[in-house]
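Hi R.,

Here are the chain sequences for the assembly we discussed:
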Amino acid sequence: MVKENVFETDVLVIGGGMSGLFAAIKAREQGVNVTLVDKGYAGKAGSSPYAFFFAVFNPSWGHRMDDWMKHVNTIGEYVNHREWTEILFKDSYDRYNDLLAYGVQVQKDEKGEIKISRFPGIDTESVQLEKRVFGQVIRKQAVKQGVKIFDRVMLLDLLKQDGRIAGAIGIAVDSYELYIFKAKATVMCSGCASYRPDGWPVSELTADGEVMAYQAGAEITGKEWNEMKSTSADYPAVTMGMSLWMKPPVDMPLDLGPPQVQVIKGFNVDGQELPGLAGSNFMELEFEAHAGRAPVFGSFEGEKGPRRVGGAATGLSVHGSDGIWPVDTRGTTQLPGLFAAGDACATMMCGAVYPGVGYGLTGAAVTGTRAGLAAVEYARNAGKAEVNTADLARLRAAILAPTERKGGFSPRWVTQVLRNTMIPYFITYIKKEDRMKAALTIIEFLRDHMVPKLYARDPHELRLAHETRNIVHTAESKMKASLFRTESRGTHYREDYPRRDDPNWLAWVTLKAENGEMKAYKKPVPKEWWPDLSRSYKERYPNPFPGE
Amino acid sequence: MAIEKIDTELCNGCGICVNSCSMDVIRMDKKNKKAVIQYPEDCMLCGWCVVDCPQNAIYVSPYKSSPLIVSWG
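And here is the predicted structure of the full complex:
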């Protein structure tokens, strides 16, 4: 008999990175009970520990909103959600002050002034948080405020009560125990989606929240965009590779000193210099590879640097550009009682390309705060959460099913097959209908034939089994969205549709379950946010695709 | 490959590394009160266990190789 732990709370926060901790602290400050659950250790888990740039907009530092907005609108290729982009910047200074109040240290220069970073071609600025440590400082603040934290518990399904979300059910990662959290409001802060590639520390980012919400009936969006991360060809599994254009803050092996990021140059095998940060949608490695001119070299201080390869973080989208579709600028979702923040929430603050530095972390703090406060408001008006016992019995059986199977397929093997299908540059980055349909056929086979037969020999493998289900789901969603968008834009490049198609595709692609099928829909970007179509294509899109 | 060694002589059993590892690679051996590498194949080389270990007891190699794909598994 598997032990079952049942808890009740006003607000349940799923995920303990930057967005989850902010959601929890801000909700708790309003006086309600808050419970935060993370499958790792809150404050150390998720993608937040690998970030340290925090974008701050502050007019007294000489920043102008028009300049910052114009930058994101252009580089994000006009599919950023302008209200969210503006909120990202407007709220950033308050969240920065929160961090200082919690005791987070910010890098200073030799004169003791706050170090403000600006990169070539990027019209926005950011500060640098004390690497890694900031997560622990914010966790301490959450504990001090009285947030109840459960570490090493993975939530797997949302609970429903009369059409509203009433909490979630999951498992411990290191023992056969079920956890049930009944909540008046739930905030999804579970981060983004990857195919668990080895080239970047994203193996825990398995679309958990997106899949939970999708299965409960929510629309998801932004799956066609890509996060372009490269890594060392010599040590591909060693993380912190960053883009081709930045010298990693960490060199091999595992020297985690203070962050020092330096902009570098890139060259292909013919010695041709590649466009730099400005004038790039970060897909140079893939374009060069496809043209037969890989590998690419990063050049430090004029020396020919190490060989770089792309696809380090395959499966990831642009920060804030994929995940659960929010219906307002407070992280409210289509499911009553469910709110979303951080990379789990598709605010579209960035659009089709990650246009700057520090937006991911700032966006997490900003959206976490908003969703946490919106959840409190909902919880105050919601009755006690109760869940139907028949529903619980069904979920319990489905969650534990992999432990009952005597044979079938191991989660690690299915994951490996999925990676080998999706990670090659010609599937996820340089896209074409025939290849995507071929990949989709494999994915659908994995979904229908292997996922239902995953087995787990211990609690660790049970976690892996559910994560495997989720990454197969994210692969399907990425191929479906990429096939549906019949143009190229930003980090979505199709060989068979190699140009932006205004105004047909000034739109977002959403995916929703319809009678068990994943269906794609087009949601138009409001006309007032379109680029001026009387300007030439080249003026609208300064970063050309190959052949343009 | 990946995480290779936790030096049992140096490990003081504090358990910090268990929480540093989001992938649940490291567990505590309750009997010996030492950290052990339980699931090395899931190590993603993030290196936080190395950074967080107060005893410098952990070694993570810069190499990782995935098992060969066989016809099923």
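The interface with chain B takes residues 39-41, 44-46, 49-50, 132, 151-152, 173-174, 198, 201-204, 235, 237-239, 252-254, 256, 409-410, 412-413, 416-417, 420, 460, 463-464 of chain A (CB under 8 Å). The longest strand of chain A covers residues 3-14.

Let me know if anything looks off.

Best,
T.
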